[in-house]
C-alpha cells in the first residue's frame, strides 16, 4: 500500500493524502474489517459442511423418507460442488437472502428481523447501564483511593467487585429471579412485555461487566492522576472537579473504552444465556432452540449476525479511541 | 560443549527460586483460602460420587419436589431425589469436564502459538493473523459455533469449550514465547545448531511455563463456568448424566415452588469458579510481585529546630515571595523523612533567583511546596509562606484565583507536562476562563496572543493542534505561554531546559529572561546546571541535603563563593579551558540519603575542610553585612585542593 507514495518521484496528492494519519488509519482499519468479515462468512458457510453426517437427515430425523431428504438436499443446493455452493452463498448474502428455515419453512431473514430488535434492545440497555455503573464508580474510587488513601474502601471495593464480577450471567439471573421475582414479586421474570420486564435481564447482564470495568477504570485513574499533566492542571489552580473530570478522566477512559468494547461483545454473547432464562424473544433463545432442532440455516444466520455485531463494536471502539486520543491513529504495527 | 554453554546461560536467567515463590502463595490470606478451597473441591470431586451416589439417584415418589427438611437438606427434585446429594455428586463430572476442556484449550493453544517457533517467521505471522481474527469473537459465540459442528452432548461441549478457549491461549503463548525467543540462551542455542523442536521444549517452554500454568488455572475456572452455561442451555451434558449447569437449568423451571433446587447448584458453580480464579490470581501475584513495601501511617511531628529568623524580618515593600523555615516531610518505612529542612528566602519583583544543587537536594520539592502543589501523605510546614502579602499556609484552594492569576509554574519535561488529549490552545485558554472569567472566544484569542508572545510561529493554527504535534522546545514555550495567561508576579521554572537540546535551551532561557525584564516578574529558576543559573540569575541559592548552604549574588559565584560545596560545584563545570582528553570531574562521594542525614554538617563527609566540629555540630546559615548567607564553619578557609583532588568518574 505504501508503494502509492514511494512510486511517485515528487510529492503528489496521493502521497500527501497518504501522509495524513487519519487516512492511513481509515484504510488500515477497513482492511482489517474486510478480512475479519470474510473469515466470519466463510466460517459460517463451512459450519453446515463440517457437521458430521448429513445435516438434512439430522434435521429431518431418522424416520423421514429418503425422497424428502433428497429433495431438500437438492433445494438447498447441497449436491453442488463446494466452491459453487460457496459462490451461491456469497451471492445470496449480498442480496440479504439467508436461506429458508428447515423447521418453519420461513425465510431466515424474516426470523432475524423479528428477533433482532429484542436482542439489540437488551444488549444496548445493558451496555449503557454497565457504563453508568462503571464510569462514576471507577472514577470516584480512583480519586478516593489515589496515592494509597482510604485503604479500607479500596479493599472492600476490590473484593466486592471481584466476587460479584466472577458470578456468571446465568447464575446472576437465577439469583435476581429468586430475589425480585419469587420473593418480592417486583418484576416479571419471563417474556418481554412492558418496561418493567427489561429490569431483571438488563441488570443481570450489566452488573458483572459494569464492576469489572469500574475496577479497570480505577486502576487507570490511579495511573493518570500520577501524570505530570495532572500536576500542570493543579498548577493552573483548576477546581478539583475540573482536574478529575476534564483532565484525568478522558485519559483514563482510553484503555477502559478498549476493554468496554470487549465487554460489549461479551455482553452480546451473554444475551444468549440471559434470553433463555427470561424467555426473551430474541436471537439468543432462537439460536439455542435452532441448535437443538438442527435448523442449520437459522443457526448460520444468527452466528453471522452476532459476528457482524462484534466486528462493528470493535470498529466503533477503535474510532472512538481515535477521536478521544488522536495519538492512537498513529500507532502502526 | 554448546549445550553446556546454553545450560549455563539459562541457569542465570532467573529460573531459580521458583519453589520458594510458589510457597509464598500460601502465606497470603487470599492465597491460603484459594488453596484450601481448590483442594476441597478436588477432594469432593473424588469422594462425592463414592459416598452419595446412592442417595443422588434413588427416586422417592413419596417425596417429590419437597422443600428442605431434616432428611433432605436441600429438598428433592421432581422424582424425589435428594438435591444436595446430586449437587455434591455432580462436582466430579463438572470438574472433570472443565479440566478436560482446559486440556484441549492448552494443547491446541500451545500448538497454534508455537507454530512460529517451529516453522519460521512466515508461518508465525500467518497464525498470528488467524488468532487475531479469532480472539475478536467472544468465547461463548465460538463455543456455540463449535457446539453446532461437534453436536449436542458432553463430547461436543468439551471440544467446543476447549477449542473456543484456544485462540486467546494461543495469543498468550505467542506473546510469552516471543519475549523469551530473543533472550541470550535461546539465541545461543540457535547459533549452536540445536533444532527448533528441541529449543522449544528445552529452552523456551520451561521459561514461560509458570505464566502458562497460571493462565491455564484461570482458564479452568472459566471453562467450568462456560460448561455450566452450555449444560444450562441444554447443549452440554444430557440426561441421565448431570452436572451443575444441568441441575441449575432443571431447578430454574421450578424456582417459584422450590428455589433451593436452582440456588444450590448455582452456588456450587460460583464457589468452584472462584476457587480456580483466586488460586490463579494468587499465584500470578506471588510470581509477578516479589516484595511489597507496606505503607505505614506516621504522624509528621512538629519541627524541633527553632525557625531561622535571619531572613524573616527583612523589610521589603516590593516583596513577591517570603518563605521562612519551609519543611517538607514524608511518612516512610522507618518513620518520617524530611527532604526539605528549614529553607528561608525572599524574592523581590523582577528578581531572578536560581536554586542549584545535585538531584535529591530538595530543590524541586521546595518549588512544589511553595506552589502548594505537594499532596498528602507528604506534609508542608513553614514559619512564613507569603505570596504577594497573602499567607498561603493551610492549603492552596483558598487562594486559587490569586495563585492561578499571579503564580506560574513551568515544569521540567514538556513532553509529559501537557495533557495529550486536549488541544494546546484549550489548555492555555482554560486558565483565563477559570480565573479571568473570559468567554470561550476571548480566552482562545488570548491563548493565541500568548503563543505568539512566546514566539510560536503561526499561533492560530498551532493553538488547534495537540501537544504531540509540537516539538519539545515549542511545547516548553507553550508551557511558558500558559504561565503568561494571567498576570504573573512569580514564575517558578523547575529545570525548564533539562529535557531540551542545547540550542533550544538557550532560546527558552532567553525567553524567560525577556519576560522577566519586560513584565517585571520574579523568576525562580531551579536547575542542577550552575552555568545556566549563572547566565540568567541575579542571586543564587545553593541547596544541599534539603537546606540552603549558601545564598550569594550570581556575579560572585566564581570570585567569592565561600561554601566548599559551592566552590566544588563551580570547579567541576567543564569550560572552554577544560582539556578534552581528561575525564569529566565530579565531586567525590555521594549526597546523603534523606533517611539518614549525618549529625553535623551534611556535607562534612565529602568536604576537604571538614573538622571535628563539622561532624558533630550543624553550622547555622549566617547573614553577612552585604546580605549574603552561608552555612559553614570554615567559610573563609582557602581550598586549592578541590579542582585537583576532584575524583574522576569512571564507569
UniProtKB/TrEMBL annotation, chain A:
It comes from the Bacteria. Signal peptide: none annotated. The keyword Transport applies. It is found in: Cell membrane. Its main location: membrane. InterPro entries: BPD_transp_1_N, MetI-like, MetI-like_sf. It is a multi-pass membrane protein. This is Peptide ABC transporter permease. Keywords: Cell membrane, Membrane, Transmembrane, Transmembrane helix, Transport. Belongs to the binding-protein-dependent transport system permease family. SUPFAM superfamilies: MetI-like. GO terms for biological process: transmembrane transport. Residues 116-317 form the ABC transmembrane type-1 domain. It comes from Flexivirga endophytica.
UniProtKB/TrEMBL annotation, chain B:
SUPFAM superfamilies: MetI-like (SSF161098), P-loop containing nucleoside triphosphate hydrolases (SSF52540). InterPro entries: AAA+_ATPase, ABC_Ni/Peptide_Import, ABC_transporter-like_ATP-bd, ABC_transporter-like_CS, MetI-like, MetI-like_sf, Oligopep_ABC_C, P-loop_NTPase. It is found in: Cell membrane; Membrane. It is a multi-pass membrane protein; Peripheral membrane protein. One of its GO terms (biological process) is peptide transport. It comes from the Bacteria. SMART domains: AAA. Keywords: ATP-binding, Cell membrane, Membrane, Nucleotide-binding, Transmembrane, Transmembrane helix, Transport. The chain crosses the membrane at residues 25-52, 97-119, 126-150, 156-173, 212-235, 255-279. The keyword Hydrolase does not apply. Residues 91-280 form the ABC transmembrane type-1 domain. Coiled coil: none annotated. One of its GO terms (cellular component) is plasma membrane. PANTHER family: DIPEPTIDE TRANSPORT ATP-BINDING PROTEIN DPPD, OLIGOPEPTIDE TRANSPORT ATP-BINDING PROTEIN APPD. This is Peptide ABC transporter ATP-binding protein.
